[in-house]
Amino acid sequence: MRLTLVLNSQDDIVLPLHYNYTIQSFLYRHVSPELGKFLHDFGFTVGKRRFKMFTFSRLNGKYRILGDKIKFYPPVSLTISSPLDRFISELGNTLVRENKLELVKNKIYVESIIVHSEPEIKDEIKIKMLSPVVVYSTLATPDGKKKTYYYSPYEREFVDLIDKNLRKKYEAFYKKKPRARKLKLKIKGKPKEKVIIYRGTIIKGWMGIFVLNGNRKLLKLSYYSGLGSKNSQGFGMFEVME
Fold first, then answer.
1. Per-residue pLDDT of the chain (242 residues; tens, 9 = 90+)
2. I want to staple 211 with a disulfide (CB 3.0 to 4.6 A). Which of 12, 95, 186, 241 is the partner?
C-alpha cells in the first residue's frame, strides 16, 4: 500500500536540515509497539540481510533553508509506501485518530490522507525518484579498514547492485527466490547527486528519472519497498510516470 499524508500546522514547521531520521522515528511511533519492534529490531531476513520493507519520500512543500535548519510553510506532504499492508493500515488509522501530533516540537495535524491506487506496472516502467536512490559497497582499504563507496548511475555496479538487492528483498519477503531476468536501467536527463547526513553518517544518493526494465513482480516490489539500499531511512522511493 501507499499513502500520502498532508500535514498542516498553525505555525511554520522547523526541522533539522537533514530530517530523515526525524521522519523515520515519527513513523515508528505511530504503528503498534509490536509491529514497530519487529521492523526495527528484526525485519524480513535472508541470510545476514534484514529489510524493513518500507520507504518514504522527501517532504514536499514550500520551504526555506536557515543554516542547519529547514523551515517549511505548511501544508506539506509526505508519501509512505510498503508491501506490508499492515504497516500502512496501522499508520493511517493511528494518525486519523490522533488530533495532536508532534514533529520535533512542532505541533502538527493530518489535514488529509490520500490512499494511492496501484499504478500499471509492466516489464518496463519510467520512474521519477521521490527520494534519492542509494547504491553502495563496503570495501576494505589497504590498511585493513572498511570504507563505504557510493556508486553513481553512470557506473555498471549501480544497476547490478540494485538488481541483487531487489532479489534479496523478494526472497526475504516472499520466502522464495525470484525467477527473473536481470534488471536493466536507462538514465533520462541528468540525475542530481544528493548528500544527506543520517545520524552523523554521510549518505550519497541520486534524484532523477530512469527507465527500469525487468520482471514486473520485482518492479512491483521495488515500487512499494523502495529501490536500492537504506529504504527505511527515507531513500529509494519513486513514482511511476505515464
1. 999 999 999 999 999 999 999 999 999 999 999 999 999 999 999 998 999 999 999 999 999 999 999 999 999 999 999 999 999 999 999 998 887 899 999 999 999 999 999 999 999 999 999 999 999 998 887 887 888 999 999 999 999 999 999 999 999 999 999 988 899 999 999 999 999 999 999 999 999 999 999 999 999 999 999 999 999 999 999 999 97
2. 186
**Residues 174 and 196 grouped into a single domain:** yes
Three-class DSSP category at 241: strand
Cβ burial of 77 (10 Å; 0-12, 13-18, 19+) is: middle
Are residues 215 and 123 in contact, defined by beta-carbon separation less than 8 angstroms?
yes
Dist. CA 209–CA 192, nearest whole Å: 10
Taking the C-alpha atoms of residue 52 and residue 43, their distance in angstroms, rounded to an integer, is 5
**Domain of 105?**
2-115
Strand positions, DSSP E, 82-215: 101-103, 106-115, 124-129, 136-140, 146-150, 184-198, 201-213
The pTM (predicted TM-score) of the whole model is 0.94
What's the per-residue H, E or C state across 183-216? CEEEEEEEEEEEEEEECCEEEEEEEEEEEEECCH
**CA angle, 141 as apex, 48 and 158 as ends, to 5°?**
60
CATH code for the domain of 180: 3.30.70.1900
